[in-house]
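User: Structure with fe (ii) ion, tokens only please.
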Amino acid sequence: MSPPLSRRRVLGAGVAAALALPAFGSRGQGGRDPFTLGVASGCPRPDGVVLWTRLAPEPLQGGGLGEAPVAVAWELADDEQFGRIVARGTAQATAGDAHSVHVELTGLEPARHYWYRFTALGARSPAGRTRTAPAAQAMAPVRFAFASCQQYEQGYYAAYRDMAAQPLDLVVHLGDYIYESSWGARFVRRHEGGIPTQLAEFRDRYALYKSDPDLQAAHAACPWLAVWDDHEVANDYTDDVSPRTADPAQFLAIRAAAYQAWYEHMPVPASMRPRGPHARIHGRWRFGQMLDLFMLDGRQYRSHHACLPGRSASPLVDCSDRLDPSRTFFGAAQEAWLEAQLAVAPARWTVLAQPTLLATADRGAGLQPAYWMDGWDGYPAARERLLGALAGRPGNALVIGGDVHAFWAADLRRAGQDAVVATEFVGGAITSEGPSAASVAAMLARNPHLRYGHADRRGYAMMALDRRGCDVEFRAVDDEKDRASAVRTLQRFAVADGAPGVHLGAS
Ligand SMILES: [Fe+2]
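Assistant:
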């Protein structure tokens, strides 16, 4: 860990930087811009953050840099004009990581904005702004956005343009950052290539998504934390089983390529680098005494689908297999880790960030219940264990999710009990098509603990936490097929400190 930066070092470096500023443009050697994918930061701690970029002058053709490593200089400043440089260094971008860099900074001050930029191959990147987490004992408000499901072909990223303009400490991404497949009723732009299975194909898919200027703006505005869902690899996969690839060994090779490409394109530390088809991306992120944020991996370790083994989980079904107590959503090791972490003295607010709707959702008709096996209803015993770990714990428990392409708010109770133990919000989809209004209405009617549901609009959610309570705002895009679309508040909610449960606010 680096020592704290002294004021003297800050000023000295700033003067040196002002004198040494070379004249860089975005065009580097050979007139090619290596920073086509923007910049990002993530994984904020009180004393550090990860800075990210990837050099890719030919972003949709493998990057365009060949096999040689490239030196990437980085600068961190405590002002937007880069007049006061507080740290600088050089990272090696190698072909093995698609010429991405993940700079793990330490020694920074808590709850502070910093600005960063990179230079390489004679070009300078756009600047990004980041923010460290509050100090361990601080009780400061925290405000973050959460998002998921950004199928590139189905819409533009007006939601990200809106998000980038919000005053946020953090963006939390809950998965489906890319889609491996093309689907949907109406496309506004197209994937290049088919369904990726090779590392080079996954890299090009990430590059296509990250070429979007509104997504780049949201990354450049504040630090992100991310977990994946299924479409980063293959629709409806569970552990080593994919409905699309019959042979588990063959699927694990695809998963290894997909995880490596995820790592190369996310602002995450080297500890999240995959080893073959395995990568530990779950973790606990503290924001002082206000927020304890658990980022959870709901794909890599989960039990295979019940009732529909080895097949797509799209049909709605029910069967007794789903009730098997040995079934697990997070896998035994992650579940044990989470339970142990939840037993440690909590912050005022605990947020479980995981891919999908946790609340029970009977989607049947008449007297016949029916469930979606890819959601938590395929893992009800694991859900009970999770809610049991949250019940009776001091502090407030919130669950956030994505995946289902709809906005939901829910009161979470243990089976057969009246007490609400946690409050859930699912933040819509950035672009991905949602279910019909009729199906949402039917779910609301059959599941009274689902307090709000809306699937007609795309968007994201914001959550603001303070001593008093939690405020949630669902932000909806008027028309995701329009790059310049307006984005407005769809619905507000509140959760009071010490009183779990959804309270609807003004729309
Ligand atoms: Fe999705």
